Task: inverse folding
């Protein structure tokens, strides 16, 4: 494994660990979410079934994505097409999140930190993945 492949694995695993921390808000008491929302200067978090559902299901989805990212990091050559797909999707998602964050009026630190970071990370995955030789096709 060369240094770029190793860097890809490390970056994927760091990303996976960060994404897996989304399990915490998926199960945290709603009162904590209200307090965090307030501390971020975003006012009062509405208390309703759809808010509870969306916050928890979104967090669970992030965590599931983290589990997938960790899984593919265990054999990047085998899953290279999946890594490249996730990378492109990350770039597109990052751009979309940036536009969404602007449209809904998220705080400046959120706008600057979420979409651009997701897109840059996707770009780094794609660049590093382009340097990794894929596994030869089986069968034949």
Result:
């Amino acid at each position: 494994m060369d240094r770029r492949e190793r860097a890809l694995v490390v970056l994927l695993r760091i990303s996976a660990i960060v994404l897996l921390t989304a399990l915490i808000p998926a199960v945290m008491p709603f009162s904590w979410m209200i307090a965090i929302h307030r501390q971020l200067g975003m006012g009062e978090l509405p208390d309703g079934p759809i808010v509870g559902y969306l916050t928890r299901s979104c967090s669970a989805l992030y965590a599931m994505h983290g589990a997938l990212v960790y899984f593919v990091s265990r054999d990047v050559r085998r899953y290279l097409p999946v890594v490249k797909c996730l990378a492109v999707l990350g770039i597109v998602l990052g751009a979309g999140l940036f536009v969404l964050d602007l449209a809904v009026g998220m705080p400046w630190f959120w706008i600057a930190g979420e979409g651009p970071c997701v897109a840059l990370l996707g770009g780094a995955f794609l660049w590093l993945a382009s340097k990794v030789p894929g596994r030869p096709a089986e069968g034949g």
